[in-house]
Amino acid sequence: MKLMTIKNIDSMKKPVKLLYADKHLKLSNYDLVKDITKQEIKLAKELDVDVVGLGDELVSRQAQPLFVLSAFGRLHRNYSNESINRICIVGNHCKVD
After folding, report:
1. CB 33 within 8 A of CB 75
2. In which band, very low, low, confident or very high, does the pLDDT at 88 lie, cut at 50, 70 and 90?
3. Are 53 and 88 within 8 A, CB to CB?
4. CA-CA distance, 64 to 52, in Å (whole number)?
5. The domain containing residue 70 runs over which residues?
6. What is the pLDDT of residue 83?
7. Per-residue pLDDT reduced to its tens digit, 46-79
8. Does 76 fall in a domain?
9. How far apart are CA 3 and CA 11, in angstroms?
10. Which residues, listed in sequence order, are joined to residue 51 by a DSSP beta bridge?
11. Which end of the chain, N or C, is more open, meaning fewer C-beta atoms within 10 Å of its C-beta?
12. H helix runs in the chain, sequence order
């Protein structure tokens, strides 16, 4: 999956945030989520905007394997390592009642 590229950005109004939703991180899609994260970081740096996650970072409300929790931490640090603010809104898959 590839993020849509924006052509002729100079002729457009500048975006205020980069939004994404429903990554549903799990063991089987880690490489895909990692690739999407790299694309988000690159685009956020080009546009000089914050990144906002609109929920459902994880695949379910159930306890997550250590790999998934560690991977989530690594992916999150990629944003901070590039000095990009990342705001995450809790989705229905991310919280327990």
Report:
1. yes
2. confident
3. yes
4. 22
5. 17-88
6. 96
7. 999 999 999 888 887 778 899 999 999 999 999 9
8. yes
9. 20
10. 18, 86
11. C
12. 30-47, 66-81
Mode of pairing for the β-strands spanning 86-88 and 17-20? unpaired
Q: Which burial class, exposed, middle or buried, applies to 37 when counting CB atoms under 10 A from its CB (0-12, 13-18, 19+)?
A: buried
Tokens of 79: 């944003």
Residue 44 within a domain: yes
Residue 65 lies in a domain: yes
CB atoms within 10 A of CB 16: 10
Residue 48 lies in a domain: yes
Please state at what angle helix 66-81 crosses helix 30-47, rounded to 10 degrees.
Answer: 10
Residue type, 62: Q
Tokens 């975006």 label which residue? 15
The answer to whether the beta carbons of residues 76 and 40 sit under 8 Å apart is: no
In total, how many domains does the chain have?
1
- Residue 57 tokens read as 């970072």
